[in-house]
Specification:
globular, 14 helices, eight-stranded antiparallel sheet, GTP binding, alpha+beta, ribosome binding, binds guanosine-5'-triphosphate, six-stranded mixed sheet, single chain, 33 strands, elongation factor
Length: about 600
């Protein structure tokens, strides 16, 4: 295809503003998919993605379109991941296209997450076409939202396309805007091959499938390619495009988006952002901007039933084959036995992996307190990158500790602003900015990542009844008064509950955790002290009183089946418990003890 006939674009939108509905409409109205093949929301495929309404893997579809000027165009839509944890993946997808549709729900307006992705689009030098969706709704206020786009994002919205992805109104205008307002890609077919590795995933039939954007040169079946970051060489088995099913083609030229397969064994062997070139006469320099995957949040994953350790290992290895950004190593804990220390791109990523382990592999897990990477400077002048409080050196050897901080952007209706400020203040935030756009405020805070990894997002949603939107980026490390707090249950330290806390907040935090554990740990036949300690000093304490745990006593010896049922229930309950010394702690206690509400 001639470069001038190609348009590559992404759709930037906040969750629920109608990205998938619009994509489906574009695909449908151009006859890319026959109506009877049309599944609702073609682009989101994974179950968890569907359930949570987020896209994790970039997906692409090639649309053939005859425009009003009578010419035939190829439109490549790339569906980018929609979550802050995947910011780097988003940035690579953005680099693979020249323009974006900015879809804003005309009844809702701009949200924080939209902002983050728009900035990525601006950074990738995109031409941006604002699209106001849901104008069929009585609550739609296109004029107000146009103003907001201009005020908050700073791009011209006077030519915004007004549509209803639901009814199909304005879809033709979107297609024309793509052709007339977005630039054609540039590239040189005669130059050495440079193709960007945008994403990769495992396909049961084809093995690893690599999504590529060809910048220069031509990629053909049976070429020998080299990954410039890893140096690995592969013979290409197939190249093709997505329509949206995989359709083999002979070649992909400059400006084109498509896939290749090349007997690559595991997704781990591919790196998002890597440059693919030919083994012989390849490009000299890679495309700019490559970054290795960097986990930022860590936690331990242990099987509730220690007999399931091998199953957990298999499951984690399988998941890791398909997710290069997830790291793991074996860990042993005095209290929990064998498990894995795992690193994730963010909290959502952690939840997705944990869900999959539990759901797809049927393993009940204990998740230890999530931790960030601390820089611990020791008195001997060395520094360790510590991502497990269990590795904390003795206090006398520690000179200072630095923690990662983030810049958080929160958009919230005025009415909830006070609660949001309080929440950020409580989490040791430093206010950087506060501005208004209509009846909504935009607050920017410098916050310790440590205070955000646990339940910040849940708290934010609950104090704002779901009206706030939140986005963050890492900004660097800063020193603070941090200490390791241990929890002792029946005088035994439970390392899975150790957390790093700010010294000034340790007592309050310790009291909350002890009080929660008192509720979460069932009574035993003996008294159980629960203590929070820093070093050898106890800073909070609760006691669970003793009980004669005879659940059948209530049945007055009468009904035998009822008695049996109760005993069975008790047994089932036990499965989700873990023995710590003489105390059984339920699986749910580990996560819930950490919540701060
Ligand atoms: P995620 O996939 O969760 O990121 O959301 P999305 O942005 O893809 O939104 P989606 O297309 O799933 O639409 C969200 C909801 O809005 C769905 O219930 C759609 O039916 C509805 N919706 C989308 N477009 C329109 C529209 O033009 N008018 C109305 N009334 N509803 C719409």
């Amino acid at each position: 295809t001639e470069l001038s006939q190609i348009r590559n674009f992404s759709i930037v939108a906040h969750i629920d503003h109608g990205k998938s509905t619009l994509a489906d409409r574009l695909i449908q109205s151009t006859g890319t998919v026959q109506d009877r093949e049309m599944k609702e929301q073609l682009l989101d495929s994974m179950d968890i993605e569907r359930e949570r309404g987020i896209t994790i893997k970039a997906q692409t579809v090639r649309i053939d379109y005859r425009a009003a000027d009578g010419q035939d165009y190829v439109l490549n839509l790339i569906d980018t991941p929609g979550h802050v944890d995947f910011a780097y993946e988003v940035s690579r997808s953005m680099k693979a296209v020249e323009g974006s549709l900015l879809v804003v729900d005309a009844s809702q307006g701009v949200e924080a997450q939209t902002l983050a992705n728009v900035y990525q689009a601006i950074e990738a030098d995109h031409e941006i076409v604002p699209v106001l969706n849901k104008i069929d709704l009585p609550a739609a206020e296109p004029e107000r939202v146009k103003e907001q786009i201009e005020d908050v994002i700073g791009i011209d919205a006077s030519d915004a396309v007004e549509i209803s992805a639901k009814t199909g109104l304005g879809i033709g205008d979107v297609l024309e805007a793509i052709v007339t307002r977005l630039p054609a890609p540039k590239g040189n077919a005669d130059a050495p091959l440079k193709a960007m590795l945008v994403d990769s995933w495992y396909d049961a039939y084809l093995g690893v499938v690599v999504l590529v954007r060809v910048m220069d040169g031509v990629l053909k079946k049976s070429d020998r390619i080299r990954m410039m970051q890893t140096g690995a060489v592969y013979p290409v088995d197939r190249v093709g495009v997505f329509k949206p099913g995989m359709l083999p083609v002979d070649r992909l030229g400059p400006g084109e988006l498509g896939f290749l397969t090349a007997s690559i064994k595991q997704v781990r062997d591919t790196r998002v952002g890597d440059t693919i070139t030919h083994e012989k006469k390849g490009a000299e320099t890679p495309l700019p901007g490559f970054q290795p995957a960097q986990p930022v949040v860590f936690c331990g994953l242990f099987p509730v039933d220690s007999a399931e350790f091998e199953d957990l290992r298999d499951a984690i290895e399988k998941l890791a084959l398909n997710d290069a950004s997830f790291s793991y190593e074996m860990e042993t804990s005095a209290a929990l036995g064998f498990g894995f220390r795992c690193g994730f791109l963010g909290l959502l990523h952690l939840e997705v992996i944990r869900d999959r382990l539990e759901r797809e592999y049927g393993i009940d897990l204990i998740t230890t307190a999530p931790s960030v990477i601390y820089h611990v400077y020791k008195t001997d002048g060395t520094m360790i990158e510590m991502h497990n409080p269990a590795d904390m050196p003795e206090a006398v050897h520690v000179d200072r500790i630095e923690e990662p901080r983030i810049k958080a952007t929160i958009l919230v209706p005025d009415d909830y602003l006070g609660d949001v400020l309080k929440l950020c203040q409580d989490r040791r935030g430093i206010q950087l900015d506060l501005t208004y756009a209509g009846s909504r405020a935009m607050v920017v805070y410098d916050l310790p990542l440590n205070e955000v990894v646990f339940d910040f997002y849940d708290r934010l949603k609950s104090v704002t009844k779901g009206y706030a939107s939140f986005d963050y980026q890492m900004i660097g490390y800063a020193q603070d008064q941090l200490v390791k707090m241990q929890i002792l249950v029946n005088d035994e330290p439970v390392d899975a509950l150790s957390v790093m806390v700010h010294r000034a907040r340790a007592e309050a935090r310790g009291r909350v955790m002890c009080a929660k554990l008192k509720e979460l740990i069932p009574q035993h036949m003996f008294k159980i002290p629960i203590q929070a300690a820093i070093g050898g000093r106890i800073i909070a304490r609760e006691t669970i009183s003793a009980l004669r745990k005879d659940v059948t006593a209530k049945c007055y010896g009468g009904d035998v089946t009822r008695k049996k049922k109760l005993l069975e229930k008790q047994k089932a309950g036990k499965k989700k418990m873990r023995q710590f010394g003489r105390v059984e702690i339920p699986q749910s206690a580990f996560i819930n003890a950490l919540k701060m509400d």
